[in-house]
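Honest question from a wet-lab person: if I give you the sequences of every part of a complex, can you actually get the arrangement of the whole thing, not just the pieces? Trying it with mine:
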Amino acid sequence: MKFNFDKLNTPEPEPKTPEKVEITQEEFDAQIEQEANKLKTSTQELAKEIEKWGGPEEFKRKMEKVGATKSTFSHYGGNEVKGSPFFYNAEGESGGIIIGKTLGKDIHDDLEYRSIPRKDKIDFGVMSGSFLVGVSTALDIILEKSSEPFATGVVEMFEKIQDGSFMGGDAILPVIVTFFTALAGGGFASAIHEKIRANKVKRELKKQELKHKMTGAELK
Amino acid sequence: MTPDKIKNLAQKVKDGESTQEEELALLKYLNEGVEQMREFVKEVMTTDVNSKTE
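Yes, you can. This is the full assembly:
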C-alpha cells in the first residue's frame, strides 16, 4: 500500500467565501437537499462497505492488530504525541491519523519512519485528524451529547491529545471503531437534515414576522 | 476548515442561528469527511495484516 505523504504535507485549504452568485431560492434549496441526500447515501454506503469487508468486529480486529502498541508517529506541522497513533495540530492545521506498525522498532520522526523498508512495516491509509475532529465535533453539538455518545468520545479524545494529557494508544481504538461503525447507516445524516429543514422554517417565519411588522399588519 | 470553525458552525446550526449558506457549507464539510472515512475504512479492511506480524 502506498503511503502518500504528499497528501499530508498539503495544508487544508481555507474555506472559500461563497461567491455571490445570483441563484434562486429553489436552486439553493435543491443544493441543500442534494448535499443532505448525499450525506445519507454515503453513510449508508459506509455501513455496507464495513459489512462487506467483515463487519465492525473485523474493522476492530485489524485496527487492534496494527494500530495500538508499537506505533509511533511523527508530525508534519504540528504537535507530536509520541506513543500515540494520532497526532493533531493544536493551532488548527490539519493533522493526520496514521496507523502503522513497525516490527519491534519505535519511530520518533517522519524521516525515520520513511526510511524503514516497506516489508517491515504495515501502514494504513491516511485520514485527516482535523476532519475527524471536525465531523465528530459537529455531530456532538448538533445531535446532543446525550443521544450520540460516540461523537463525544472522539471529541474528548482529541481534546486530550491537543492539550497533551492523552496517554496510551490502546484507548483510541475502541473510540475510533465505535465512531466509524456508529456513524455508518445514515441515522445522524437524517437528524441533521431535519434540523436544517427546521431552521429553514424558522427563518421563513421570522421573515414573515418582520414583513408584517414593517407593513404595520398584525400577525394573526 | 479548522475544527474550531466547524464547531462554531455546528453550534449555529443547532441553535437555529445559521444561514442557509452556512448550512450548505456544513453539509459539504461533513460529506467530505465521510468520504475520507470511507477511503480510510477501505484501506484498513483491505490490508493484509496477517503476513507481517512479529
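Two things worth pointing out. Helices of chain B lie at 3-15, 20-45. Residues 20-45 of chain B form the longest helix (26 residues).
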